[in-house]
Amino acid sequence: MKTQKTIRAALLGFGTVGGGVYKLLVRRKDELADKTGASMEIGAVLVHNIHKKREGVDPALLTDDFEKIVNDPSIAIVIEVMGGIEPARTMILRALQFGKNVVTANKDLIAVHGGELLAAAKENGVDLLFEAAVAGGIPIIRPLKQCLAGNELSDVVGIVNGTTNYILTKMFEENKDFDEALERAKELGYAEADPTADIEGLDAGRKVAILASTAFHSPVVFDDVYTEGITKISSSDIKYAKEFECVIKLLGIARERRGQMEAYVCPMLLPEDHPLATVRGSFNAVFVHGDAVDDVMFYGRGAGEFPTASAVVGDVIDVMRNMEYGCMGRIGCGCYRSVPVKKFRDVKNKFFIRMQVTNRPGVLASIAGELGRHKVSISKVVQKVITKGSAELVIVTEEVKEYHMSEALEDLKRLEAVQEVSSVIRSY
């Protein structure tokens, strides 16, 4: 009978996700052996303060010295759940160079330095897996790399930030304004004390960079992704969305069109019959279109202690299996193409424009003329009188390049009849 070997791992970080990973590895200890053919043992946990009590963890495992981990030949897997760029980047590079497999949940790092880290993993013949870096517990990186590998993918569109989706859901369903919905999100722990990364679209932008690189086999970094947040969405915009049988969602969009990629994040009016329109509260979803599979959607919890830990532990199991069969590094970067990312100014979108105008004859004609001069075609106009001298005008356009729309808006603001451009939201 074959003697079952033990694979030792080290955790870097023991916050919410790190604690969840530790608990799940302990809970699944017997099943891990059955699923992988090897047993798992946590050999060290890197923390800032080794004197802080951590319930359920043997204090002897705690260390604040990364060098002890990287120089320990018995540790074969490093699980990084600290977050941030440094020192995580340096630690992961060192671990890979020492021949250790790495599992990480670090979207900030992968979105900026993923190419460098994956190259180091390849050079050293080890695994670097990062399923938990996008959409928490929802499997999406592995499906893109493996299950959908027989497809030529053209679209990956997602709601990949639970905080903003919760806020927009509250605004839409309970008629709350933005500030009120944000405060509620903070109370429930969905939003950080400083929610900038979420509400300004930065968190989603990092995930879009990772998704685009994975789906289209060409490197995309965070700086390639245009980001726009939800802070300007008002209750008036929500009312019009309902009138147009739409919802408003913060969408992360990655597309390939005619040899160029598009990668951006922004709030969009989404028809209520689109599958992503039904994604409520703090849930996430990623919608994928492939030439063979057609449309598929992955839905679930996008963050949290155990959903994220689920993805991390799934990667750990994959690494353990690869170690058992001597096939580490079998699925690496996958970026074998070089597809340029289109400048956002050249991307085409439809637009919803809400403005306050002087209520007199000829105003609509002058606005339509100005839009037409910038190659902006109108598909719908709604005008509602607010006061005797002022009206609220809503225009929905056909697809137009971003820079044409931007130039048109600048000229519209100069028209005497336009008192204010209140909202500009793209339409999916």
User: What is the 3D shape?
Assistant: elongated
- Which architecture of the largest domain would the CATH scheme give at its second level? 2-Layer Sandwich
CATH superfamily of the largest domain: Dihydrodipicolinate Reductase, domain 2
According to CATH, the fold-level topology of the largest domain is Dihydrodipicolinate Reductase, domain 2
Residues in helices, as a percent range:
25-40%
Helix-strand category: alpha/beta
Distance between the termini: 59 Å
Please give the largest β-sheet: 11 strands, mixed
CATH class of the largest domain reads: Alpha Beta
Domain ACT: 352-428
Keywords: Amino-acid biosynthesis, Membrane, Methionine biosynthesis, NADP, Oxidoreductase, Threonine biosynthesis, Transmembrane, Transmembrane helix
Family: Belongs to the homoserine dehydrogenase family.
Cofactor: a metal cation
Protein architecture, described:
By secondary structure, the protein is an alpha/beta fold. It folds into three domains: 5-136 and 305-324, NAD(P)-binding Rossmann-like Domain (Rossmann fold, 3-Layer(aba) Sandwich), CATH 3.40.50.720; 141-301, 2-Layer Sandwich (Dihydrodipicolinate Reductase, domain 2); 345-427, ACT domain (Alpha-Beta Plaits, 2-Layer Sandwich). Helix content is 36%, strand content 28%. The chain has 14 helices and 17 strands. Strands 7, 8, 9, 10, 11, 12, 13, 14, 15, 16 and 17 form an eleven-stranded mixed sheet that branches. Helix 4 (88-97) links the parallel strand 4 and strand 5 (101-104). The longest helix is centred in the last third of the chain and has 20 residues, at 305-324. The protein is elongated and about 85 Å long. Keywords: Amino-acid biosynthesis, Membrane, Methionine biosynthesis, NADP, Oxidoreductase, Threonine biosynthesis, Transmembrane, Transmembrane helix. Its cofactor is a metal cation. InterPro entries: ACT-like_dom_sf, ACT_dom, Asp/hSer_DH_NAD-bd, HDH, HDH_cat, HDH_CS, NAD(P)-bd_dom_sf. The chain crosses the membrane at residues 6-25.
